[in-house]
Amino acid sequence: MNSIVSIENVSHSFGRQQALINVSLEIPKGQVFALLGENGAGKTTLIRVLTGLIRPDSGSATVLGLSCLRDGQAIRQRTGYVSDSPSMYEWMTADEIGWFTSAFYDDQFANRYSEALMGFEVPPNVKLKHLSKGQRAKVALALATAHDPELLILDEPTSGLDPMVRRQFLESMVDRAALGRSVLLSSHQINEVERVADWVGILHQGRLKLVQPLQALRDNTLVITATLEHGDATVVPPRGDVLSESRNGRQMRWVVREAADDWRSDYGEQSGVLSADARPASLEEVFVAVCETRPDSAWQSEAATQPTTGPLASA
Ligand SMILES: Nc1ncnc2c1ncn2[C@@H]1O[C@H](COP(=O)(O)OP(=O)(O)OP(=O)(O)O)[C@@H](O)[C@H]1O
């Protein structure tokens, strides 16, 4: 694979809190890659490792072929990064901060930045501290993209923004990927990710549980439900990568990746199953199946905590 990011066995703890546990990942070039995970899953920590802001306890990572341990400065020069809470010089106007930042980059920076500000309809002569949250987020995005970085990294880019601004942000990511640039975004906005991502990775409690192209995940993941003959009947799960298993009375439900083509053949007359059906799983259902650690009130989860490793995830 032609990777823009390569992560090998990265682990990191804050005191006794393990934030990343043996994470390995290859992110392909020219794609929008979404890193999904619940609060505290380790997304920001992983991004900070990639940008050279955190030195991991073990393992190694490269961005654009550069070492995240040694070449943090060069990586930051060639990537754009918008953190979950961008800090900027509040007393500057949007124009002034663009002029100031342009000193660190090529001649085209100022033009691209002005164009982006205009496109986002941000007033150029108002101090940043007087701009709205959405306008400030737009300034941060314009600053992060004006040097036309090969990789744009966005940590929770749309959190707290209104639907119109979110849409603009998401469209700008797709536009970048169309130009051959790469985008890595972290998010827990699953419906938004579903609209823009080419690839998804799911982090759960510091472990990378699943990595796959979104379309393949959609095509290969089923929610299979079976109605049992009676409530205490036992039944084998469908053959494939069972992400979760839950039960509600006589109903069994599994979320299964790469189910065997002939999975129905296991639920014939002697199987204790009256009927079985399947439909494609949504990304949200996959996410919940991977991250579920507690049984919910109706559906008793039985296999949700089993390890679920994908072909590329090696956590
Ligand atoms: N500077 C820090 N000091 C101590 N613990 C930290 C620090 N940064 C992160 N952690 C812990 O590491 C774990 C992972 O945090 P991280 O911020 O990477 O998660 P996240 O997936 O980005 O979460 P969120 O979606 O809430 O931003 C959490 O348990 C968090 O409490």
Task: Explain what the structure shows.
This protein has 9 helices and 15 strands. With 315 residues, the protein is an alpha/beta fold. It has 2 domains: 3-205, 3-Layer(aba) Sandwich (Rossmann fold), CATH 3.40.50; 217-301. Strands 6-7-8-3-9-10 form a 6-stranded mixed β-sheet, with helices on both faces. A hairpin with a 2-residue loop joins β12 and β13 (251-257). The protein is elongated. The two termini are 19 Å apart. Adenosine-5'-triphosphate binds next to β2 and α1.
Write the layout of secondary structure elements.
Elements: E1 3-14, E2 17-28, E3 32-37, H1 43-50, E4 58-63, E5 66-67, H2 72-78, E6 79-82, H3 94-102, H4 109-119, H5 133-145, E7 151-155, H6 163-178, E8 182-187, H7 190-196, E9 199-204, E10 207-213, H8 214-220, E11 221-228, E12 241-248, E13 251-257, E14 273-280, H9 283-291, E15 300-301
Parallel strand pairs: 3-8, 3-9, 6-7, 7-8
Antiparallel strand pairs: 1-2, 1-4, 4-5, 9-10, 11-13, 11-14, 12-13, 12-15
Helix pairs in contact: 3-4, 4-5
Bound molecules: adenosine-5'-triphosphate (ATP).
What labels would you give this structure?
315 residues, disordered C terminus, alpha/beta, 2 domains, 28% helix, binds adenosine-5'-triphosphate
In short:
This protein has helices at 43-50, 72-78, 94-102, 109-119, 133-145, 163-178, 190-196, 214-220, 283-291, and strands spanning 3-14, 17-28, 32-37, 58-63, 66-67, 79-82, 151-155, 182-187, 199-204, 207-213, 221-228, 241-248, 251-257, 273-280, 300-301. It has 315 residues and is of the alpha/beta class.
